[in-house]
Protein 1
Amino acid sequence: MRAVVPLIQVPTLVLHRGGDSPAGADARSLAERIPGVRQIDVPGEDYLFFIGDTGPMLDAIEEFLTGALPAHRSDRVLATVLFTDIVSSTEQLTEMGDRRFKELLVTHDELLRSEVERFRGRLVRSTGDGVLATFDGPGRAVRCACALRDEVRPLGLDIRVGLHSGEIELRDDDVAGMAVHIGARVAALAAPGEVLVSRTVTDLVAGSGIEFEDRGEHGLKGVPGTWNLFSVVA
């Protein structure tokens, strides 16, 4: 092979393992006889691309063939989740009847959608008598929450709002993860007309001018430990 490999006239990639071992030295010696060769010593011991630490080997092959590695897409992002809930929705449904309450819900949903868009959030889904939205900025999420609360009052509705910031998992058009679960639990503890947030949110918006009142520590169902919650002063 040593006499033949110098005749290779096409772009060539040689991958070898072994570092400074005799096997690695032999591989480098052979590769250096190929004109314009690109050689990479990848970590690990297995030479098969489907055994052991295959990532660096497959990345090197893909980059050699295509000219670049694709950006790795992450299905987890940092976001602020916002949950709303209509206070006493069952009682209002009983009082108004199905038709009138459904009409009110349509107006409610449109108002909330418009406000979320205005504050550059993403309305993920309706929760029946509320919404789940996400924001890439906690300050805008808090201000949006206050606007939502104020916008629905002329409809004769009170909502409770809960917010938490953390890493969420993207699932097609939905979101999941512990941060979403915590946000829902925080919303469930909010009083009528209250915007309640986790300590994480208050830390992230420090210096923004948004004021909070300490609501003490609370246990959140299904979440380890206790959580310090704060009410937005507005």
Note: DSSP finds seven helices and ten strands in the chain.
Protein 2
Amino acid sequence: MAIQLGEKASFAGHETFPFRYQWLPKAVHQIEADAGAFLAEDAIVRFGVGKNMVKSIRHWAVLCRVLEESTVARGSRVPVLSVSEFGRRFLGRNGWDPYLEDPGSAWILHWHIASSPIDATTWFWVFSHLPQPEFTKSELVGMLLSLAEQRQWRRVAERSVERDVDCFLGCYVQRKPGRSLSIEDTIECPLTELGLIREYGSKGSYILERGERPTLPDAIIAYMLADYVLRSGSTVATISVDQICNAAGAPGRLLLMTEDSLIPRLERLEDITEGALVFDETAGIRQVMNRPGLKPLKILESHFSGSVNSYHKGGAR
């Protein structure tokens, strides 16, 4: 069971802008008020940003699953936008975390983006397939171009991949203050708080940082695993710990967590999910059993409502 790269890929849509704290709530509120907000003549006024940033907000809102595209309206090539159930409950009126203050919220957004092989190819490939933890921008661009050639992805230009890699790094690596950065440019993406990628050594060298993720609540890991099981289309009632830790698109891989750091979290799944996910170790085989009726949003609701106790919300001990 794994989420895999397919026949299509994307290295565009974000207009090179990492998303910012207020973009996703703003997208939800605008579409709640008017489904055509992004196409309105005064869209730049409504969103308070330039034309390219309006496009970027739309891209990120769909990728982060707070907005969803439905069927194309008759006579139009543009899909109809609506607020998803997740978006409504997460960022809507009386939402769970409308200001992205909960420690788990940025992790949820990282999961939604990095588990999308078609719409966020660079994100998915780096966290699922990068052969070594250290890389430079030029090395990453070269590896992605080689991948595009191997898979015969159409219309993949080197400049598009370079811009995509720039945006990818901007999402995770905190930028150092400098004269060339405007006040607007110094606003960081929420994902920089996660500590998943660090710049080191000479300028332009980066490393994927493995760790125990103390800011990551257990319930959010449970949500990711439930979402992974459902999105991968598995009909198998169990999933091995090895798959959870190492399969492409699986939680352990996208969180850069080792098996030793993830096991204690998995052992607490049963309480968090009310028995929908249960860690089992029989005859030396470690696996997680998933029961019928698995509902990822219910797990999130429990987390944000506080019904998952503080021990579970606090992440690893």
Note: The mean pLDDT is 89.
Protein 3
Amino acid sequence: MQKDYVRHVRTFAAFLGRSPDTATSEDLRRFQLHMAQQQIGAPTINAAIAALRFFFTVTLERPDLVRPLRIVNEPRKAPVVLSREEVARLLEAAPGLKYKAALSVAYGAGLRVSEVANLKVFDIDSQRMTLRVEQGKGQRDRYELLELLREWWWAARPQVWLFPGQNSINPITPRSASLSTRSATSRARWSGWAST
């Protein structure tokens, strides 16, 4: 970590062409702009900013110089949205009814793996057609999931957890649900899924 700080200060000195203790606020701003123009990644730019803030604030006791430096946020990538056919193939490739139902709930209700793993039987209100998610993204109406959830419930008769683990006292683990998703994805791709 300390080597990284020294490396970033050394890089700044090379950009500056003189001792870094002679730098101005404008020099630091130009250096950050230079890094962005060189298409250096946000994590590297942020590490350089942290190193320069430490150097100027602690070592040189000149915190006023680093005020113009700003942390760079990494741009978010748009998620890959599967077509209906790809979703159908993914669900068909699930290893068994439990994982097919769990994947359907995750995809249909937009739940995280941990939220699906922690669903309980009483979280389903079939009269109001709602699926209750405690401490999750909120309550979502999902009529299209109800038939598959009913099929799963009739097949397994879960008592507490909607998707119980190997011992029915505990829910399936998020890791187990993730592994089944990867397995289904591999099988779906193997069976002719064109997109990646």
Note: The domain at 2-66 is CATH 1.10.150.130 (DNA polymerase; domain 1).
